[in-house]
Design goal:
Number of strands: 15
Distance between the termini: 87 Å
Largest sheet: 8 strands, antiparallel
Radius of gyration: 34 Å
Number of helices: 3
Shape: elongated
Order of helices and strands: HHEEEEEEEEEEEEEEEH
Structural class: alpha+beta
């Protein structure tokens, strides 16, 4: 200093790095910051677009929900215009699939579905070797109806116990040469009659009516009332797994066929059961919608 000139290129910054090198390092740091910001933005966009309920999936879910609401509204309008099918909650035609023609969210399953080309109306479901149809989360209302066609195999053995339907409470059973319906409302209500002729189609309906305590549980065979029992007015187990063609624990398999299974949340009267027998299962609007 004292009158001497110091070359600029030898001047060091306080950090000890020559000035040109420090500018170069600063440029690299800025580039890294920009790159990190770009990567974070890309990751944020990725997670936004792939989170359930966000991005395009949210738009698809919204469209599906709108279609479901529209299908249910169409079904309810159809139901109101067809008094016989008011209160319909399960409708299984068994015409080559386990489709439920009532859009009330029951989804039947079966391990090895087997369909027979000969049914009472179209095809039918053939029960063999525990290919039971299961409806999880079946909800019993205080009033209701089960109705369906069935056909026993001609080699039916009266000594065999078989379950047509079973919820581990309410069930329809072949046992000891009798066809017996048990309805559980805190007690087991029992209606029994001789087994109908094997090798032919028969229609069976079980109804329960909370307004009729003295004879609230009724059994119909081929449209005719064949027995009744008292009813407390409420089912003992309102939420169960319903099995068709076997017991709740997958024992006592039914050997035969079932066609056009219905479940209603109201008790059908005899005239309606007779009409149901002669009416092929309809295809309501909205069936098959997402």
């Amino acid at each position: 200093l004292f009158g001497k000139t110091v070359p600029l290129e030898d001047t060091e910054t306080p950090s000890g790095v020559p000035a040109p090198s420090r500018r170069k390092a600063g440029g690299i740091e800025k580039a890294l910051v920009v790159l990190a910001a770009v990567l974070l933005a890309a990751l944020a966009a990725y997670f936004f677009l792939h989170q359930p309920g966000w991005g395009p999936e949210w738009e698809t879910a919204a469209v599906d929900e709108d279609l479901e609401v529209k299908a249910e509204m169409e079904f309810l309008a159809w139901e109101a215009a067809n008094p016989l099918f008011q209160g319909l909650r399960l409708a299984l035609p068994f015409d080559g699939s386990l489709e439920n023609r009532s859009p009330i969210s029951y989804s039947p399953t079966a391990g090895r579905p087997l369909f027979n080309p000969e049914g009472r109306h179209g095809k039918s479901y053939e029960f063999r070797d525990l290919n039971v149809v299961t409806i999880p989360g079946y909800s019993f209302s205080n009033d209701g109806t089960w109705a369906f066609w069935f056909r026993l195999e001609e080699d039916y053995d009266p000594n065999d116990e078989m379950r047509l339907l079973d919820t581990n409470g309410t069930m329809i059973v072949f046992r000891g040469g009798s066809l017996t319906a048990y309805f559980h409302d805190g007690r087991f209500r029992r209606i029994s009659r001789p087994v109908p002729e094997a090798g032919r189609w028969h229609h069976l309906a079980l109804t329960w009516d909370s307004a009729d305590r003295a004879r609230g549980v009724k059994l119909y065979l081929n449209g005719e009332p064949v027995g009744n029992a008292r009813y407390s007015g409420a089912p003992g187990f309102p939420l169960r797994t319903l099995r068709i063609g076997g017991a709740w624990n997958l024992r006592h398999p039914f050997s035969g066929r079932i066609d056009e299974f219905y479940a209603f949340d109201r008790a059908l009267v005899q005239e309606e059961i007779e009409e149901l027998m002669e009416t092929p299962m309809p295809v309501p609007p909205g069936v098959g919608a997402p």
